[in-house]
Write a structure and sequence with these properties.
Number of strands: 7
Strand order of the largest sheet: 4-3-5-7-6
Radius of gyration: 26 Å
Strand content: 5-15%
Largest sheet: 5 strands, mixed
Helix content: 55-70%
Oligomer: single chain
Structural class: mainly alpha
Number of helices: 25
């Protein structure tokens, strides 16, 4: 490796880590329930070798019925063991994974586009600054590891054992890749290069646990719930129409370059997967590759194949499910940039680079560091850490009434002993991968997580906490509930409330004593 390339790799890695690491523990604001579930189960496994349900080394995490691939959880264990359980230690893993993806994708581009330093450099810059990839490297998203493993598998070539093993591992990182990897290997075998059957056999052996788990209802729960196929009544015309509609949505420039993902957790405010200006090199590069597709067969296969799994699901466009599409689209953009800069002189290249990098960084800074923490804090469960810290100061029981399964955030922020949690969770044994029904199990004499029961809970001496819709001001006045404290948002308004009940005063105010008062 040349000195220039070594320096470039180092600078590129540092830049990727800095952009993805600034304010990592506080931006995105809060800690979403899915992140907390992954983090606490990693903590539980690191301490006991078992998850919260006392199941040893799961391949899929049952958690609160989501059955998330657990491969990434085993990576989280490392920073948790070093730094302890915290938001920073949890998000350190996607930060590292995302930064490694910048380098691995740059290496891959030199093999799929052209083996040259400019290709490596431009790919690294485009990836390092890509809005969606930065977000997915700062919060905990399943596709982040899947994207890295698939990129490494392509870089090592799918006709090698290492390449096939990396592709196989990617299916254990993100569920849609269970389909995409098989389709890709089949297309590579048919259209690019024959893969020796001995190597394919090793790949299939590595997939045996996946084959077994595919027969279990648990790991297939989310897949079945997300498919639009049952809604068509198996009408062939409707199936074709729906698939084409969904498929083209994932290749639509408007979804890739202009519109944010409708889910506020899956995009930065007012930014899409890529920057709007990149539509120009994208179209230029796409036209070039289409006219020379024989020289870009692997790139064309990935471009056409990667939207297939996402197109089978209900969402019109999901940035997460389009994660693998990030690979070919990035390379198409890089190809277009290379073609455009060839037409410019040295001064023009410098001016264009400064202008576009400045424009990209300006958009990114505004969206990531200003708008995200001040506009989307509710989507990230901001305030839960402060809430669960404050209730620890109360010796009376606490009733938590929040929409999400927030018990796992309580476990995370308070570092509840995994052995104690495992003693409360239902023992599932062989039904671990088949038990798809779920309800909050974490109930102690100290804290419970459920909806407020107005017939009984106001007659118990306890703290009731929840969002603004749990208890109105008129209800608090009617039932003699005292506001103990509130949790403010980054903008200052109250978003979480804690009320103390007064059962003695409430009972005394009743002419006809309700049953809870008579039992006292």
């Amino acid at each position: 490796m040349s000195k220039r390339l070594c320096v470039t790799v180092l600078l590129m890695t540092v830049a990727a880590i800095v952009i993805r690491g600034i304010g990592l523990s506080s931006n995105p604001p809060g800690l979403y329930v899915d992140e907390a579930a992954l983090g606490y189960n990693a903590y539980s496994i690191s301490q006991t070798g078992r998850d919260e349900y006392n199941f040893s080394l799961p391949t899929y995490l049952r958690s609160f019925g989501t059955y998330t691939p657990a491969l990434v959880v085993y990576l989280i264990i490392i920073p948790i063991r070093i730094l302890g359980l915290s938001v920073l230690s949890l998000r350190a893993t996607p930060l590292i994974i995302g930064s490694l993806t910048v380098i691995s994708l740059a290496i891959l581009s030199t093999r799929l586009i052209k083996s040259s330093f400019p290709v490596f450099l431009i790919t690294g810059i485009v990836t390092a600054l890509a809005p969606s990839h930065i977000l997915f490297s700062r919060g905990f998203y399943e596709p982040t590891l899947g994207l890295l493993l698939f990129t490494l598998g392509l870089a090592k070539r799918p006709d090698t054992i290492i390449g096939l093993i990396l592709l196989s591992l990617s299916t254990y990182a993100y569920q849609p890749q269970r389909l995409i990897v098989f389709l890709f290997i089949a297309c590579f075998f048919i259209f690019v290069r024959k893969i020796p059957w001995s190597k394919l056999t090793m790949f299939l052996i590595s997939q045996l646990p996946q084959f077994y788990l595919s027969t279990q209802s648990g790991p297939n729960t989310r897949l079945i719930n997300q498919l639009w196929l049952p809604q068509t009544g198996h009408n062939l015309l409707l199936i074709i129409r729906e698939f084409v509609s969904q498929y083209t949505a994932y290749l639509s420039p408007s979804n890739l370059f202009w519109f944010s993902d409708p889910d506020p957790q899956r995009s930065l405010p007012f930014l899409s997967v890529f920057f709007p200006w990149q539509i120009i090199p994208y179209l230029v590069g796409l036209f070039w590759i289409i006219n020379r597709y024989k020289h870009y067969r692997v790139l064309v296969i990935t471009y056409l194949l990667f939207p297939v799994a996402a197109a089978l699901t209900k969402d019109p466009f999901s940035t997460m499910r389009a994660s693998l599409l990030f690979i070919p689209v990035t390379m198409v953009i890089v190809t277009g940039i290379l073609l455009i800069i060839r037409k410019l002189n040295r001064v023009g290249r410098i001016l264009a680079s400064v202008l576009l990098l400045g424009l990209s960084w300006g958009h990114l800074y505004r969206s990531l560091f200003i708008l995200l923490p001040n506009q989307r804090y509710l989507a990230w469960n901001y305030g839960y850490q402060q809430l669960f810290t404050k209730i620890n100061a109360y010796s009376i029981p606490v009733l938590v009434d929040l929409d999400k399964p927030s018990y796992v955030q309580y476990l995370f922020f308070n570092k509840i002993n995994p052995n104690f949690v495992q003693s409360l969770a239902p023992y599932l044994g062989r039904d671990y991968y088949r038990s798809i029904s779920w309800q909050d199990y974490f109930v102690t004499s100290r804290v419970s997580f459920r909806h407020l029961d107005w017939r009984n809970d106001i007659y118990k001496d306890q703290l009731i906490v929840g969002g603004p819709n749990v208890i109105s001001q008129s209800q608090a006045k009617e039932h003699f509930l005292k506001l103990e404290f509130t949790i403010p948002s980054p903008l200052g308004e109250s978003i979480l409330f804690a009320y103390r009940t007064d059962p003695a005063f409430k009972c005394a105010s009743q002419t006809v004593k309700p049953e809870p008062c008579l039992l006292k």
